[in-house]
Amino acid sequence: MTxxxxxxxxxxxGKPALIVIDIQKSTFIDDSVERSIDNMPGxxxxxxxxxALVDAAHDADIPVIFIQEIHRSDLIxxxxxxxxxxxxxxxxxxxxxxxxxxxxxxxxxDYIVPKRRYSAFFGTDFEILLRGLKVDTLILCGGLTDVxxxxxxxxxHQSDYFCRVVEDCVGGSSVDAHEAALRAMEYLQTGAVxxxxxxxxxxxxxxxxxxx
Length: 212
Description:
Largest sheet: 6 strands, parallel
Strand order of the largest sheet: 3-2-1-4-5-6
Helix content: 25-40%
Radius of gyration: 16 Å
């Protein structure tokens, strides 16, 4: 284990944005035992818990960006995505693909960024939006911890954003995969993995004191 001294980072550095990853209608209206994508036990409850983060961000005047996985109904843009465990999902003509706006407290002024791949950065205007908003810290919630959340975190890290993931507001394909992904993200940025209550307090403090 390294013993190199590290500079302590603030939980929120500069200007934050809340990134709500792939919390879509399917989570709330599809209770099928057999799903196109595996979800860990308690997944839905973790997505419901993320609503508190959205409300806290709104209260703190922090931008909220909803990421939506969506694919053309002719399947032309799936690429290699179906070569693994996942089946066809998030088609543009399926009502389950819509962002869960009512359930997540979506407001006028929030943003939606559609994506065709796992990372919110890949092939989207996400980073253009972040630059326009002058964002420094990404606060991540949603799913899957081990796929879309993890890959968005990694791309954010490699683009020099401060990245935080709210461990009780993300859910993985399995408990093991969820926990492994959290460890991988914490490895990249010490202090990245936080719980919801801690993050809500940080948001409220940011609203009072402004950027660190």
